[in-house]
Every structure is written in structure tokens, then in C-alpha cells.
Amino acid sequence: MRCKHTYIFLLPSLLAGSFTQGFAQSVSDSLAQDHRVEDVVVTGTQTPRTLKKLPIITRIISRTELDRLAPRSAADALQMSLPGINVTAHGAQYRVSVQGFSGDHVLFLVDGERLTSEGNGVVDLNRIDMANVERIELISGAASALYGSNAIGGVINFITRRARHKEELSATFDHSSEGVTRYSASGQIVRGAFSSMTSISYIDQAAYSVATQGTRPETTPVMGSKSLNLSQRLRYRTSDLRRELTGYIRYGYRDQDGDGLRRNKYLSHSLGGQAYQAFGELHNLRLDYNHELYNRDNFLSVSKERTPIFHFTGNTVRLQYNFGAEEKTPVLVNAGIELYHERLRSERFTTAATRHQATAGTLYGQAEWH
Q: How many alpha carbons lie under 13 Å from residue 2 in its C-beta half-sphere?
């Protein structure tokens, strides 16, 4: 049983004149915009493409579908709406497989940027704030040359919300009989070429047990946790759509129950931006930068001692050139260079203080004839 309340506040700029007419027009415009956005995907080529003209099989979970399903987490959203996906709890984390491929061979993205995995198919999907997700795009199989060998099983891209209204505030409260209480709020502002989208959510998950059937029936405990997620996105886009600058920051913190003496604490943040410049109708360049931090610690409740389990930082710089336009050129080309650097500290190394790092450079390209 779930009880959910949503409150939306349209600020004074939408109230000048008739409230009923203004609100109806706002809803109508929003639905029309949602329809247009859901017909366009970006994961396969890292550029906007019309879904029906893509040669790559791409599945979309829209915001409307997510609202209908009301998933408790990103793991629930995937398992409830996408066939061939299996999500199982693995201690404090999730193990995800897509059509038989483990999470090590499936690439998870947020707005096109990689989501760090701890290995062995383990992915921390709790870092994803579903209240701030606009849609999910799934590419099954090794369908794109842009993401490398980590994506031979597929790509799952969580696209976050964008500011669309001149001014809007919204708040949501959700409580379920499973012991999950969620609070979320968001605000957006659009002023000419500038827009801002801010969101915050807090989730309190009470511990519970799941009865399992079999030759030896038993119960599987599900750990309780408290999570906080913050997100801020700023964008400047010219009216002719030829130039765009975007900056973002996402922050996440989770305190998870352990065995009574120990707790699992997670800290993550991503910050970066994109710069886009079009040179006419057929040529454009895009520059992306992303810095990611993901720390998992074992915390002793009595001594207050914190032991690092998995500490990761990564930096990605990507420059991509795009040529062509649908229905205007017989070929569409994406080519670019990506530089990547990561540092890792783990309990699996010789000493807790040991850090390993790696740097990689990649040249990539793909062309599509139609």
C-alpha cells in the first residue's frame, strides 16, 4: 500500500490573468513538450536523434510511465519496465544483468556520463535520484562504437529533468507499507537564454525481511538506509540553438544499516559541463568534462573508526565532431577523442593506503548510412 502526495506551485508569472486558462495552457504545453522529448533519444550517438529513424533498437521509459509505476528505486524502475533485466540484492549493493550479461558488461550512464561500478557486476543504483529522472534509455547489445568494450551487453542511460517552465516549484511526499518514506522537492527557472533546475530528495528505508520459498524456507533481510540526493543544473542556450553551455553538480550521501556494530556509508558527487557550438546546419562540435567521486566506507559504531572499502575518483574529457542531419544528408558521422584518468583505493589492495591510477586515451568514430 502506498500513499503519495504531490504539490506543484506555479509562481506569479503564471498567474497573471486567468488562473484556469493559464494553468491549462501550461499543462498543455508541458504535455506537448514531453511528447516531443520522448520521441528524441541521445544515447546511441550522443546527439539528438528521432527514435523511429534509429537503426539501433532503443527502449524508452518515459516520465509518464515512471509516474505510473512509482518505483521505489532505480533498480525497481528497470526491473518493472524493461524485459530481460534481472536485479538482485548483493549485500549492500545491487547486481544487475541484462539478457545474460553481467553488470560488468553493461554501461550505466547519467546524462551520458559513466556511473562507477565496484566490479563483479555490482552497481550502486541508489545513487540515482528517480524523482529527478525524466526518462531512461536502453540500448541492448553492442550497438554503439562510442562506449567501448564495457558496453557489449548494452547501455542504460538515465536522463535527468530539464527546466521547461518560466517558474515552478514542486514537492512530493510518498510513504509505502514496505517502510519507505520519500520526500522530494524541485524548482526551475527560465529567463531568456538562461535556465536553472534544482532538486533535492531524502529517502528513509526501514529494514525488513523477505520470505523466500524453497526446500528450506527462510527470510532474506533487506538493510535499512537513509539517503540524501542534491542536484543543480544550469544552462545557457542561444535562441538560434547554435550555442549552448551547461554546468551541473550532483551530490549523494547514504547511511546504510550493517550488522549492528558496523554501518556502510556512501558519498558521491559528479560535477562537470558541456559546451556545444554549431557551424551551420550540418557541422557541430561538443566538448564534455566530468569529474566523479565515489567513496564507500565501513564505519564502526562504537569506535567511530572509518575504513575505506572503495574510494574512486575519475576525470573524463571528450571532444566530439558531428556531421549530417536527418533527411538532409545520406550519412551521419560522429567522431571524437576521449581522455580518461582514474584513481582507486580499495581494501583489496596490499595496504589500505595503496592507491592505483590509470590513464587512457581513445579515438572513436561511427558512420550511419540511410
A: 14
Evaluate whether 30 touches 164 at the Cβ level (below 8 Å).
Answer: yes
Q: What is the pTM of this model?
A: 0.82
Strand 106-110, strand 154-160: pairing: parallel
> Percent of the chain having pLDDT more than 90?
39
* Residue 301 three-state SS: coil
Q: Give the Cα-Cα-Cα angle 116, 120, 121 (nearest 5 degrees).
A: 65
Question: Which set of grid coordinates corresponds to residue 341?
Answer: 584518468
Name the residue with higher pLDDT: 14 or 344. Answer: 344
Q: Could you tell me the fold of the domain covering 2-369?
A: Ferric Hydroxamate Uptake Protein; Chain A, domain 1 (2.170.130)
pLDDT interval class at 155 (50, 70, 90): confident
Among candidate residues 324, 245, 345, 325, the one with its CA nearest the CA of residue 289 = 245
| CA-wise closest residue to 274 among 293, 289, 255 | 289
Q: Which among 63, 8, 60, 2 is positioned nearest to 34, based on CA atoms?
A: 63
DSSP code at position 11: -
3-state secondary structure of 230: strand
Q: Which H/E stretch holds residue 5?
A: strand 2-9
CB 324 within 8 Å of CB 333? yes
Tracing cell 497573471 back to the chain, one arrives at 16
